[in-house]
Amino acid sequence: MGSRIFVCLLLFSSQILATLALADSDDTAALNAIKSSWSNWPPDWKESDPCGWEGINCTDSRVTSIMLAGTGVEGSDFSDISALTELQFLDLSNNIGLKGILPASIGKLKKLTTLILVGCSFYGPIPDAIGSLDRLTFLALNNNSFSGSIPSSIGNLTQLSWLDLSYNKLNGTIPVASKSAMGLDMLLNARHFHLSNNQLTGSIPDQLFSSNMNLIHTIFDHNQLTGNLPSTLGSVKTLEIVRFDSNLLDGSVPPDLSNLTNMNELYLSNNKFTGNMPNLTGMNFLHYVDLSNNNFNASNVPQWITSLQSLTTLMMENTQIQGQIPVDFFRLPQLETVVLSNNNLSGILNIGNSYSNNLTLDLRNNSITDFMQKKDYSMELILVDNPICNTSGATLKYCTVENHHNNTFPSNNCTAKSCYKNQVLSPNCGCSHPYTGTLHFFSFSFSDLQNLTYYKTLNGALMSVFLSNGLPIDSVILANPTVDMYNYLQFSLQIFPSGQHSFNRTSISTIGFLLNRQQFPLQYYGPFFFIDEPYCCFAGSKKSSNAGIIIGVAIGCSVLVLLVIFAGIYAFLQHRKAKRASERSNPFASWDPKKESGSVPQLQGAKWFSFEDLKKCTDNFSESKCIGSGGYGKVYKGAISSGQLVAIKRAQQGSMQGASEFKTEIELMSRIHHKNVVSLVGFCYDQGEQMLVYEYISNGTLRDCLSGKIGFKLDWSRRLKIAFDAARGLSYLHELANPPIIHRDIKSNNILLDDHFNAKVADFGLSKLMGDTGKGYVTTQVKGTLGYMDPEYYMTQQLTEKSDVYSFGIVLLELITAKAPIKHGKHIVRAVQAELDDAEGSENLDKILDPAMGSGSHVVGLKKFVDLAMRCVRESAADRPTMGEVVRDIENILELSPVNKKMDTKISRSSHEEESNLSPLHSYDTEVSDVSYGSFPFRVEHQYGK
Hints:
Blueprint: H1 2-17, H2 25-37, E1 56-59, E2 62-67, E3 89-91, E4 99-101, E5 114-116, E6 121-125, E7 138-140, E8 145-148, E9 162-164, E10 169-172, E11 192-194, E12 199-203, E13 217-219, E14 224-227, E15 241-243, E16 248-251, E17 265-267, E18 272-273, E19 288-290, E20 299-300, E21 313-315, E22 321-323, E23 337-339, E24 344-349, E25 360-362, E26 367-371, E27 380-382, H3 396-399, E28 424-425, E29 431-432, E30 435-441, H4 452-468, E31 473-483, E32 489-497, H5 505-517, E33 528-532, H6 546-558, H7 560-565, H8 567-585, E34 607-608, H9 611-617, E35 626-629, E36 633-639, E37 645-651, H10 659-669, E38 680-686, E39 689-695, H11 702-707, H12 716-736, E40 741-742, E41 751-753, E42 759-761, E43 768-769, E44 778-779, H13 791-796, E45 798-799, H14 801-817, E46 822-823, E47 826-827, H15 828-839, H16 862-872, H17 883-896
Parallel strand pairs: 2-3, 3-5, 4-6, 5-7, 6-8, 7-9, 8-10, 9-11, 10-12, 11-13, 12-14, 13-15, 14-16, 15-17, 16-18, 17-19, 19-21, 20-22, 21-23, 22-24, 23-25, 24-26, 25-27, 34-38
Antiparallel strand pairs: 1-2, 28-29, 30-32, 30-33, 31-32, 35-36, 36-37, 37-39, 38-39, 40-43, 41-42, 44-45, 46-47
């Protein structure tokens, strides 16, 4: 014992005598200034030496990197960073709480090589001083709200390889060099130009491209560029991916484009190109081609297509091609998807017998009269709206459109196992807190999202890069592959820690850096960016300063004897403390539902059900009673003791909330009382189960009704009434709930119809409460459903009630057209606007009208209804009406229509009279999970009272 004490005293003394390696005094002052102006920084930033802080790395006492990706830091002052003159790497990505203007002083970081600010909340202009960072090789400012023009000074960055300014609000023209300024054409070493989803205008300068460049990715889609595609593009022989889709480009596609023999993917759709179809002969590595929705001259199916042996996907919708499709076309060995709809193809379709079994062929709205292989074929074929579907020999197999859901990939093979609280079961059957987010791919060389080969390739590549960098990764899950409204591929990503229940901040920031820096090759996939979801539960840091280690050892030695003496007492006290803590942490622990004593949830009308109650009314949760399922669990139909039919949503293991969160959720939902909002009947918190009990809505979703699944055709009067009901429900959430609720996932699948086709808004799994609507907006990670999502919210991450208005506008367009929001890569807003432009203001809207409604000339108020829908989906949220205004406008249309008198339910002029005595909502500051039983439940975090 004496020797141990001596060692402890020696270590304790040595800390006083030791000379520790401290950070440079100027760097220390700068980092302390940053710490004082930021918040939510890592806990170990309280130590004296910044070289020991998480996210800060030093070389020879100088700060050389700040790596804080995804760590949740918040702040708006960035001027002090400029004092870190030895800084080489700065990665602040996926910190939505970092907001403000990027200061011009950033130009003082002369040694900076990597600047990554992906997924933050920066706004204002990109400073010209960015051009002073002449060592910069990687610049990623995407997914912010930067505005103004692209600084021409970026042309000074001659070592730059990666330039990503996409998903901002940049406007003006593309800068090129002149006598007085630099330009992007000077970036001869650049490999990546990513400038998509901005507001760039003007023509593409011929000077922008030259044979001296080394570009492999040129991505300019979803801007407002005009004029011709420059012929100089064909001189950049290194190009592999070209995206100029969804602009306003016109004229002929330059023939020099065929010189790009290394091209893998070509996107030119949704422009105004004219002239002959481009000849792509010689592009032997071409996988993906999209030329849809242009004004090319009428021609036969191009013969050069049959020479593209690597082709997987051909999109040529609405391109004026005609005649018969050559049978050789279907012999291409890699072919997965062909879309030739809305053309003038005719004659007899012959697909031969050499096609791939996983081929999807969409020939909708052509003039095909017959099909040679009517019975014996195995591809997915769509011939809807062709003359053949009007003949007696036609079959439903190719004259109907089936709805296909993407493979969610893959479930684990673990035996039944439950995880503690909000932990998730990994593929290797361990319970932990995964780091989650979404991968967004600018391009991809395939279209068969069900093919596991592509999934395994991506999964393997990610695991390889993580493990090779020494990260404690157990496994990853990629799920829900989806092509979004911008024709980008998305995968949801879960990354599970190894040997621990959660990641520390260093691991999270390293993962974020590796994903957004993207220094590893990916077969089948183009460039991408990663947007995370805030991490729930950081583990303690594995990094500490030398002083901390010495002090820790000294203190440990000094209490060694006391720990031995009091070990038994400590164990006893800990047992009692753990028991008391467990009772305190469980809000239902002291609550007897029969006596209503203890910490009783403050409910208004919702009833408690025992597990046995719900087990009995669902025949032991029989599959015959199951009416739906999703990521949260399954939904069962049952009848409670009162005889009321209910829908019971049962959470599966791994998706259940903590007790406090579940209590908060039922308290919240019990306070929503409106005839056009699905109501909560009760809940079950018993025997380790969490269940929500809702009123049963018999006629399913509006989407099912419009698609004909329930066998009932909606006439105009019913559609008006449904729109009115849903608008009233949503208006209540926005304007009469206290605090207001933003639904955030309005879509036709979340509007349910009862026996009398009264509409009710459902699914509050993504909702946000706004404690003070006067504050304008809630900044939040983007959530919602593709096709319905407000583009302004998608780009700025600033959520307002007008985001719901946009989604509701999409639902109104669905009511008119009965079409899905995204069809073959074309959004319903664009499609309807094109038809309105063609109509040139006439009242004849038959082209967009659902045929089940008859002629538009007999539909009273249709023009006003369409005008209202298009106002709801205006690009700027400020230009959209409020939901109260939408209710009044639909009410006015109902009064104009004679069918109003036939409605089952009286339409009152005072839309909100019955809501005046409703119970107010209260503000909470906790997480609330999925609370609906709609078709596509989600699990999300909520932020209340912000």
